[in-house]
């Protein structure tokens, strides 16, 4: 594509400089700038938005602009080609403006407008070449004062048709801009206002020619049309660069979300996407005509972003991915807190229904024993049971062996108390970091409880390995399969920076495997 | 018989001292931490030390460590570790291959003065004492194709009492059986589990515990 850009640019330069006519430096520069700006911006746009053919149309505008420069070559054929294609670029430009941003004709009126626009250019120009008295090749490219006795009738018709068409296009673009949402307005802004400026100057130039303004004024207007023509693709390029800035904002968003979920996630995302109408919907989503992008993590839909459909889908997906990670972490943190709270409630219940209850009856029985000493035996038995309850409770809250003796003894103790037969296949000889040992222990404890409750397993095999700081805990049973309730484990392993995988198929048992890196102490 | 006591809970320490005194023991020292106990043992070795597993400064296994230290430096002193944990791991830490005169008992057992006094006497005499709760954990473990299933209920009872470190004589008294019957049960247990009878009671305890722990 770069070759197209440089090649056509060079050909145009050659035509202007060595074509045979005297062409001023500003004219060369401006002519080259218009064509190169359109082709360059078109290549960039085609590359960035493969879903749209607007880029290809911009390239076509640039090429049409260069083709008419053939008229700068002092030669009969070149002159004919130059005249025939002199106004073609305006038709292509109209085509582009009518169909922006998709570049595709989607309605009847668009087809009519674009068709008429093309008819008014090459066919009319060719007819003029054939019918009118043309006095040999002359420079038709360079803007200069032409003292013509009057505008031919055909030209009047063509110009009026052009004015009508272009004015309609102008009105249409402005109403479209007014009707758009803020996102589309932001996208359309450079296109609409740049396009409007071009159309306006062309219309004014035509009107000036029609009403016979002095040639000096007409020359000025033609120059300004060309200047505006350079500016428009540059405005479009600015739009594209802004899109790139928007995308770098996604990176900044990821960094800022990495530090934690903001109080008002919605407005942060709305700011990043420049869409004040953005909504975050958790749970069921009502059907909507607006754009919907899901926040997904690990194959689960966490929430949906409901946004202006005009937003760049790549940009929204990037923002959604960052937000999904942050939301997932938040939910995980929330679940960890909830699990801790639930554990506290459970401890409270166990204390209340167990030891506390027994101590109350001890108190009561002691009172009765004042008159019936034989009740003291019952007191002792009840106290012993209260002690058992407390001991079991303490064990469940935190296994003292884990810190005192390490993972191996702690796991063996679990195995000895397991409700399902369990075998400790292997445990690292060396001590791991406290957090790693805790993670291993609770993974095994939870997986054992699950296996005992749901798996109908005959035996559970437990193996912990640590190779080069990579810890793997594997608990596999020979039960009925179909694992459940490992969410808390998932969070615990994720908190240690690792991952938990559960493989389970009906009849083939369940294997819970946690892998994480043990950070050096 | 001279007993030294180490426990950081003063009330409990005094209570145990009282129970032991009432049972005819001479409580020669009462200390609140492991360092105090070790100093005392070096200065004037008692016959038995009764030590809490969890003491200052770390409140982890200071008492158990001190007990092991005493077992090494003064093999003829009996050590009885009192603990709140039903953990075979701690109990077995006391029992090396030629262990003698060592015991691991739940603190709750002090409620039965006779049981405490019996344990102190047994470790003083070089025997081994393993808390029934610890033994119950070992015996109650779920196993695939559990060899213990092949034992009769009586045989399992005999196995458990053996694991607690009791002699045949004690088993007779506990289970109300004649010496001959007990011997027959013991032989049958060892045959069914494929164990060899050791030359003495302590070896027998170690063999049974090792079997239950594997």
Automatic annotation (TrEMBL), chain A:
It catalyses: ATP + protein L-histidine = ADP + protein N-phospho-L-histidine. GO terms for molecular function: kinase activity. It is an enzyme of class 2 (transferase). Pfam families: HATPase_c, HisKA_3. Its EC number is 2.7.13.3. Keywords: ATP-binding, Kinase, Membrane, Nucleotide-binding, Phosphoprotein, Transferase, Transmembrane, Transmembrane helix, Two-component regulatory system. Residues 439-481 form the Histidine kinase/HSP90-like ATPase domain. It comes from the Bacteria. The chain crosses the membrane at residues 29-46, 53-71, 77-100, 112-131, 151-171, 191-213, 219-241. Gene3D superfamilies: 1.20.5.1930, Histidine kinase-like ATPase, C-terminal domain. Residues 344-400 form the Signal transduction histidine kinase subgroup 3 dimerisation and phosphoacceptor domain. This is histidine kinase. It comes from Lentzea miocenica.
UniProtKB/TrEMBL annotation, chain B:
Residues 144-214 form the HTH luxR-type domain. The modification 4-aspartylphosphate is found at residue 52. The keyword Cytoplasm does not apply. Residues 2-122 form the Response regulatory domain. PROSITE patterns: HTH_LUXR_2, RESPONSE_REGULATORY. Pfam families: GerE, Response_reg. The keyword Isomerase does not apply. InterPro entries: CheY-like_superfamily, NreC/VraR/RcsB-like_REC, Sig_transdc_resp-reg_C-effctor, Sig_transdc_resp-reg_receiver, Tscrpt_reg_LuxR_C, WalR-like. PANTHER family: TRANSCRIPTIONAL REGULATORY PROTEIN NARL-RELATED, TWO-COMPONENT RESPONSE REGULATOR. This is Response regulator transcription factor. It comes from Lentzea miocenica. The lineage of its organism: Bacteria, Bacillati, Actinomycetota, Actinomycetes, Pseudonocardiales.
């Amino acid at each position: 594509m770069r070759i197209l850009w440089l090649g056509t640019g060079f050909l145009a330069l050659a035509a202007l400089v060595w074509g045979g006519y005297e062409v001023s430096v500003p004219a060369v520069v401006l002519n080259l700038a218009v064509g190169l700006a359109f082709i360059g911006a078109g290549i960039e746009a085609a590359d960035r938005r493969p879903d749209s053919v607007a880029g290809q149309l911009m390239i076509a505008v640039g090429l049409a602009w260069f083709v008419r420069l053939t008229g700068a070559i002092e030669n009969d054929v070149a002159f004919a080609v130059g005249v025939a294609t002199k106004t073609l670029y305006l038709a292509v430009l109209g085509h582009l403006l009518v169909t922006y941003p998709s570049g595709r004709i989607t309605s009847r009126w668009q087809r009519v407008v674009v068709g008429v626009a093309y008819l008014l250019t090459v066919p009319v120009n060719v007819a003029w070449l054939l019918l009118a008295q043309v006095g040999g090749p002359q420079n038709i490219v360079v803007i200069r004062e032409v003292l013509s006795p009057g505008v031919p009738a055909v030209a009047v018709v063509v110009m009026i048709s052009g004015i009508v068409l272009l004015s309609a296009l102008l009105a249409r673009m402005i109403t479209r801009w007014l009707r758009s949402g803020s996102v589309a307005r932001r996208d359309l802004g450079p296109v609409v206002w740049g396009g409007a400026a071009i159309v306006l100057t062309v219309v004014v130039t035509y009107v000036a020619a029609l009403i016979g303004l002095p040639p000096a004024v007409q020359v000025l207007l033609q120059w300004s049309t060309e200047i505006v023509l350079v500016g428009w693709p540059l405005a479009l390029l600015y739009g594209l660069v802004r899109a790139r800035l928007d995308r770098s904002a996604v990176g900044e968003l990821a960094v800022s979300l990495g530090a934690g979920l903001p109080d008002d996630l919605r407005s942060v995302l709305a700011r990043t996407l420049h869409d004040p109408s953005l909504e975050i919907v958790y749970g069921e989503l009502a059907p909507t005509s607006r754009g919907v992008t899901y926040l997904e993590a690990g194959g689960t839909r966490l929430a949906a972003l409901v946004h202006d459909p005009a937003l760049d889908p790549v940009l929204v997906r990037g923002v959604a991915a960052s937000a999904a990670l942050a939301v997932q972490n938040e939910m995980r943190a929330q679940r960890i807190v909830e699990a801790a709270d639930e554990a506290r409630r459970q401890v409270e219940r166990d204390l209340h229904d167990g030891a506390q209850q027994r101590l109350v009856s001890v108190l009561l029985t002691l009172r009765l024993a004042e008159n019936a000493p034989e009740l003291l035996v019952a007191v002792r038995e009840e106290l012993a049971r209260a002690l058992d309850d407390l001991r079991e409770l303490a064990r469940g809250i935190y296994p003292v062996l884990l810190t005192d003796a390490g993972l191996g003894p702690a796991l063996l103790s679990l195995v000895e108390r397991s409700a399902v037969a369990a075998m400790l296949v292997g445990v690292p000889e060396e001590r791991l970091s406290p957090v790693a040992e805790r993670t291993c222990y609770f993974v095994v404890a939870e997986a054992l409880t699950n296996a005992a409750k749901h798996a109908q397993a005959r035996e559970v095999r437990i193996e912990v390995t640590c190779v080069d700081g990579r810890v793997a805990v594997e608990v596999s049973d020979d039960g009925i399969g179909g694992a459940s309730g490992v969410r808390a484990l998932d969070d615990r392993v994720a908190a240690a920076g690792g991952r938990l995988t559960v493989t389970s198929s009906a009849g083939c048992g369940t294997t819970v495997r946690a892998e994480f890196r043990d950070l050096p102490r | 018989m001279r007993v030294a006591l180490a426990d950081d809970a003063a009330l409990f320490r005094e209570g145990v001292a009282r129970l032991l005194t009432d049972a005819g023991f001479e409580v020669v020292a009462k200390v609140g931490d492991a360092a105090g106990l070790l100093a005392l043992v070096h200065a004037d070795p008692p016959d038995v030390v009764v030590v809490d597993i969890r003491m200052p400064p770390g409140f982890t296994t200071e008492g158990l460590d001190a007990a092991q230290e005493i077992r090494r430096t003064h093999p003829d002193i009996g050590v009885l570790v009192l603990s709140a944990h039903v953990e075979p791991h701690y109990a077995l830490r006391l029992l090396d291959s030629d262990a003698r005169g060592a015991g691991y008992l739940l603190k709750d057992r002090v409620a039965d003065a006779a049981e405490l006094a019996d344990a102190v006497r047994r470790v003083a005499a070089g025997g081994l004492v393993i808390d029934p709760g610890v033994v119950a954990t070992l015996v109650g473990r779920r196993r695939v194709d559990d060899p213990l299933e092949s034992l009769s209920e009586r045989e399992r009872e005999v196995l458990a009492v053996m694991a607690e470190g009791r002699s045949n004589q004690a088993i007779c008294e506990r289970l109300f059986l004649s010496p001959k019957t007990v011997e027959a049960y013991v032989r049958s247990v060892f045959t069914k589990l494929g164990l060899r009878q050791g030359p003495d009671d302590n070896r027998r305890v170690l063999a049974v515990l090792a079997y239950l722990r594997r």
